[in-house]
């Protein structure tokens, strides 16, 4: 890293050693050890969106406490 010049047009590609190599392990949700998606939580979030009927100015008024 010490020999890298900041004057070059492109920064050199440095592979992230913490990510699995694409040749060794394809990246899928299972290889990343992610939890499953709770469909009930997603549907409740979509159905309970009380801000969807408000205009942008009304949402900003709520956000910044303006009357």
Give a structural overview:
The chain has 67 residues and is mainly α. The protein is built from two helices and no strands. The radius of gyration is 23 Å and the shape is flat. The N and C termini lie far apart (54 Å). The relative contact order is 0.06.
Structural topology:
Elements lengths: L38 H9 L8 H9 L3
List the uncertain runs.
Answer: none
Task: List the total number of helices.
Answer: 2
Determine the structural class based on helices, strands and strand pairing: mainly alpha
Strand content: under 5%
Q: What percent of the residues sit in helical stretches (DSSP H or I)?
A: 25-40%
Task: Kindly state the number of beta strands.
Answer: 0
- Give Rg in angstroms: 23 Å
Average pLDDT confidence is 75
Quickly describe the structure:
The protein has 67 residues and is mainly alpha-helical. Helix content is 27%, strand content 0%.
Pick out its properties.
67 residues, flat
């Amino acid at each position: 890293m010490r020999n890298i010049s900041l004057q070059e047009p492109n920064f050199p590609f440095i592979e992230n050693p913490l990510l699995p190599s694409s040749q060794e392990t394809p990246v899928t949700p299972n290889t990343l050890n992610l939890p499953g998606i709770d469909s009930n939580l997603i549907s409740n979030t979509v159905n309970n969106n009380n801000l969807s009927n408000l205009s942008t100015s009304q949402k900003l008024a709520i956000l910044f406490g303006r009357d």
